[in-house]
Amino acid sequence: MLAARLSSRRAASSLGANSTRAFTSTSPIMEQFDVTVVGGGPGGYVAAIKASQMGLKTACVEMRGSLGGTCLNVGCIPSKALLQSSHHFHDAKEHFADHGINIGDISMDLDKMQDAKSKSVDGLTGGIEYLFKKYGVEYYKGKGSLKGPNSVSVVKNEDGATEEIDTKNILIATGSEVTPLPPVPVDNDGQKIVDSTGALEIKKIPGKMAVIGGGVIGLEMGSVWSRLGAEVTVIEFLDKICPSMDQELTKKFQTTLKKQGFKFKLKTKVTKSEVEADGVVLTTEPSKGGDEKTEKYDIVLVATGRRPYTEGLGLEELGIQTDKLGRIEVDEHFRTAVPSIYAIGDCIDGPMLAHKAEEEGIAAVEIMAGFAGHVNYDAIPGVIYTYPEVASVGKTEEELKEAGIAYNKGNFPFSANSRARANGSSEGFVKVLAEKDTDRILGAHIIGPNAGEMISEAVIAIEYGASSEDLARTCHAHPTLSEAFKEACMDTYDKPIHF
Ligand SMILES: Cc1cc2nc3c(=O)[nH]c(=O)nc-3n(C[C@H](O)[C@H](O)[C@H](O)COP(=O)(O)OP(=O)(O)OC[C@H]3O[C@@H](n4cnc5c(N)ncnc54)[C@H](O)[C@@H]3O)c2cc1C
């Protein structure tokens, strides 16, 4: 499968300039573009660059005023910038002394931290604009809507004028937005009830912060402000945080966050919020109903999820269906009910992740060009960038049990990994799940330092159908954290050495 895909990619990238002519000459209509991408987030901009690299005449319509979508502007990148800065602060305050580094009193300059974040965002979004120029993608700044199977209308940001684009294919990559929580209306400017975008712009370190929703975004943003001194309480409707994760990992993760000072109110729902001059009073009750409680917080972060964003696109007029969660319905080739219109990323089914959107973007334009674009949904990693990090790929133990698949399990703690010990950061473990009969790796789950980088090894293993023995017999550099992955694989098919 992989070899077939590689050869199709090689063929696609060797098409060169003539491919545009070959591609458009089959069409009876003279289109202005071969592909018009609506949305310049990671799904859209990656698809646009790839399409242009393949020789397709490509346009990308983005209304935000900068490229990179949620990810670069108000998502992955700014949140990771704040996580990194707050981690440095926390490390300096709590852990440098363990290494003999005495720095006395330290303080946090919030404006400078926000400047550093903005600098990363500006550099990266500007970088995408440079790449568009480099690869010849036509960038339309404005809101796009679908006027027909081969027509996109753009209302330009600059002057409100409308421009029509004729195009052979359309790729919808309009992403997602925060799902509102009616009892707790967000007002980012007010800095009392914020969503993830507002949580990236907090101007003063809160004393008490409530995070509604125990998912990835809430826990990452909660970590930032907790490290800077806020007392963070996570209020979660369910009985656990990150419910779709491997449960062994979830339990360890919650214990770790508790040790860091997080408070958890599980099986709890928020029914009311009242904004006062100096904070927000939240009313909660047990998820199943029961006695109400009230508590006051300086700031409340609503992080209960995101929903597809397709407003004003004109889907209904073209007969393009959405499901009950508002996701655009597509077939396995990312095609909507209109054959020339495709959709990818957060606005369709699947995990709302930047790298999933990117993979789909590449596959969709390869398919448009007549090649075998494909995404392996079993090999999409998920990472939570807290400290320690949490990273997963493939099946969880609960999923294997439910599917009745017999498996072997290996586990290796970072406390037995020499590099983690030398670094003074050895919390967590690596867990590997492999099919009992074949030893093929089906899932890997890591909580520990650098888990987000280490998970790539498991992704490659799953992509190539490797066995745990394959990985266990692969030489890993010493001393590295990734030796913990090797040893977890040894434990899966036999025994680890260092534990
Ligand atoms: C705080 C936060 C942290 C996150 N961290 C991570 C992370 O660490 N790793 C990860 O993988 N994912 C993360 N995500 C999720 C990630 O940002 C999304 O999954 C990803 O951005 C989806 O990409 P996309 O291209 O589908 O859509 P988006 O990035 O949402 O981009 C869609 C773009 O389309 C534009 N648009 C919409 N409609 C129109 C229209 N009609 N005309 C023109 N333009 C339009 C929008 O302005 C937007 O810029 C995070 C999200 C948030 C909110």
From TrEMBL:
Gene3D superfamilies for the chain: 3.30.390.30, FAD/NAD(P)-binding domain
Keywords annotated in UniProt: Disulfide bond, FAD, Flavoprotein, NAD, Nucleotide-binding, Oxidoreductase, Redox-active center
GO terms (BP aspect): 2-oxoglutarate metabolic process
Segments forming domain FAD/NAD(P)-binding: 33-361
Active site positions: 478 (proton acceptor)
Top-level lineage group: Eukaryota
InterPro entries attached to this UniProt entry: Class-I_Pyr_Nuc-Dis_Oxidored (IPR050151), FAD/NAD-bd_sf (IPR036188), FAD/NAD-binding_dom (IPR023753), FAD/NAD-linked_Rdtase_dimer_sf (IPR016156), Lipoamide_DH (IPR006258), Pyr_nuc-diS_OxRdtase (IPR001100), Pyr_nucl-diS_OxRdtase_dimer (IPR004099), Pyr_OxRdtase_I_AS (IPR012999)
Cofactor(s) required for function per UniProt: FAD
Cysteines paired by S-S bonds: 71-76
The protein's Enzyme Commission number: 1.8.1.4
PROSITE patterns: PYRIDINE_REDOX_1
Gene Ontology cellular component list: mitochondrion; oxoglutarate dehydrogenase complex
Sample GO molecular function, one term: dihydrolipoyl dehydrogenase (NADH) activity
Family: Belongs to the class-I pyridine nucleotide-disulfide oxidoreductase family.
Note: The active site is a redox-active disulfide bond.
Protein name, entry field: Dihydrolipoyl dehydrogenase
The species this protein was found in: Seminavis robusta
